[in-house]
Every structure is written in C-alpha cells, then in structure tokens.
Amino acid sequence: DQPDFRMSTSGMPPFGGIYDAKHELPDGVTAHWITYFIVADSDAAAATITRLGGTVTESPKDTPFGRMGKALDSTGAPFAFIGMQQ
C-alpha cells in the first residue's frame, strides 16, 4: 500500500509535493509542513548535515520517490532531503 504523495511540476524537475502523513502521525498532531531539499546524494547530505552541526533524525532510506531522510538544523528547525531518482 503506497502513501498518497503528489509531486508538482512545471516541466521538470519537480518543485513541490504534498504527502498525506495522517497514518504516521500520533493522535492529536495537526496538519503541518516540512520542506524537502533535493540533493545529489542523500547519504553524503546526511554526513554533511551532521558535520555542520545538524542532527539526522531519519537516516536516508529508499522510497518509490527517491532516497529520503529527515533532519534538524543547528537551531532545531526540521527539514527533509531527497535524492531524486534519475
């Protein structure tokens, strides 16, 4: 069963997407946004995030959309990163 994930494009590459994460969130968590950054190499990005003072909260993993991970910057702001499939 694949999650409902929609990518927005105006030509290529994609510039935005929306994902229905309600099946992953604890009860009571309201709707929210997370910014995804497209990277050339998700594993290298995870290493760079750590080296620059951020925290990788979800190590990169393969998904149908690319290799994704999640992190916090050095101030605690969340973001995600994805190595898009070519």
Structure description:
With 86 residues, the protein is mainly beta. It has 1 helix and 6 strands. The strands form 2 sheets. It has a 4-stranded mixed beta sheet with strand order 3-6-5-4, with helices on one face. Strand 5 and strand 6 (78-84) form a beta hairpin. The two termini are 23 Å apart. The model has no long low-confidence stretch (mean pLDDT 83).
H/E element order: EEEHEEE
What is the topology, as strand order, of the major beta sheet? Answer: 3-6-5-4
Span between termini: 23 Å
As a percent range, the share of helical residues equals: 10-25%
Tell me, rounded to a whole number, the average pLDDT: 83
Q: Uncertain spans, ≥5 residues at pLDDT below 50?
A: none
Major sheet summary line: 4 strands, mixed
Number of strands: 6
Q: How many alpha or pi helices?
A: 1
Q: Give the helix/strand class.
A: mainly beta
- Which overall shape is indicated by the principal axes computed on the Cα atoms? globular
Radius of gyration computed on alpha carbons = 13 Å
Q: Which strand-content bin applies to the residues?
A: 35-45%
List the helices and strands and how they pair.
Elements: E1 5-8, E2 16-19, E3 36-39, H1 42-51, E4 55-63, E5 66-72, E6 78-84
Parallel strand pairs: 3-6
Antiparallel strand pairs: 1-2, 4-5, 5-6
Quick summary:
This protein is mostly beta strands and 86 residues long. 12% of the residues lie in helices and 41% in strands.
